């Protein structure tokens, strides 16, 4: 096994949507058929090329950029929690659009990015790598970082390792989606926003209904950058109603 094959196949297992090819493989002949398909798809994918050119860590950046373009979610000064953030392209987008890095004029935002995998720092963001978002310990750490204040936007691009068994994968991502919702309910500002990735399946309609109990509007969004064969959708819930305390 040559080194290119090894590095690409390892990356793929971790982030199917997030591996950027650094060089075009010249010889696909000795690769497994599935690897050939994946490499060919990466080479032909305009978002992979664009991510490289614009210095995003993965092509997923363009999904959030498109959602923002259409629905105007971010502005300088906002506080954002980014769940399932590695390798960090959504964190890059959020940091830039909220001015968390302080490179632009105007208000300075805050971005807290968490993932169960370790990942490299993003300038202006607070990174919580190696931390499982679903644990009480991680959520306590995030609340401490907020120092009693609230978040304007909660993002969840969290995804379990896909087994290929569609129903099981759907159930697992829904557990993560509900974990993000439960946390968002505790720390989101009234009128705040939640964006959650799900994979289509039987529990999606109920999740949409549950979101509507707490948010004024819920939209199902499928950005252009989502791959045709993917079952992913993003639920955009806006206008958090707040929790009744009495
Ligand atoms: C599609 S990737 C996220 C890509 C990221 N939004 C970006 O743009 O770079 C999904 C991520 O969810 C993370 N994840 C899955 N389960 C998690 C959990 N329980 N806690 C934290 N992160 C989790 C994975 O480790 C993976 O990095």
TrEMBL record:
One of its GO terms (cellular component) is mitochondrial matrix. The active site is at 197 (proton acceptor). GO terms for biological process: mitochondrial large ribosomal subunit assembly. Coiled coil: none annotated. Residues 56-240 form the Ribosomal RNA methyltransferase FtsJ domain. Belongs to the class I-like SAM-binding methyltransferase superfamily. RNA methyltransferase RlmE family. This is rRNA methyltransferase 2, mitochondrial. It comes from Pogonomyrmex barbatus (red harvester ant).
């Amino acid at each position: 096994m040559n080194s290119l094959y090894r590095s690409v196949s390892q990356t793929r297992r971790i982030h199917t949507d997030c591996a950027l090819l650094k060089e075009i493989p010249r010889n696909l002949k000795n690769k497994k058929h599935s690897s050939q398909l994946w490499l060919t798809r990466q080479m032909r994918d305009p978002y992979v090329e664009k991510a490289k050119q614009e210095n995003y860590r993965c092509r997923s950046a363009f999904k959030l950029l498109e959602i923002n373009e259409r629905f105007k979610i971010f502005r300088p000064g906002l506080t954002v929690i980014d769940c399932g953030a590695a390798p960090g392209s959504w964190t890059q987008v959020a940091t830039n659009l909220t001015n968390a890095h302080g490179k632009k004029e105007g208000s300075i935002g805050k971005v807290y990015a968490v993932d169960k995998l370790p990942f490299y720092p993003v300038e202006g963001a607070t990174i919580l790598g190696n931390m499982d978002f679903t644990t009480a310990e991680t959520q306590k750490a995030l609340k401490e970082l907020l120092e009693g204040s609230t978040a304007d936007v909660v993002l969840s691009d969290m995804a379990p390792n896909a087994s290929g068994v569609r129903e099981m994968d759907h159930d697992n991502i829904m557990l993560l989606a509900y974990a993000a919702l439960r946390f968002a309910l505790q720390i989101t500002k009234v009128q705040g926003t939640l964006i959650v990735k799900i994979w289509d399946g039987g529990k999606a309609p109920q999740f949409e209904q549950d979101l509507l109990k707490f948010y004024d509007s819920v939209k199902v969004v499928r950005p252009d950058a989502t791959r045709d064969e993917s079952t992913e959708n993003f639920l955009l819930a806006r206008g958090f109603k707040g929790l009744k305390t009495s």
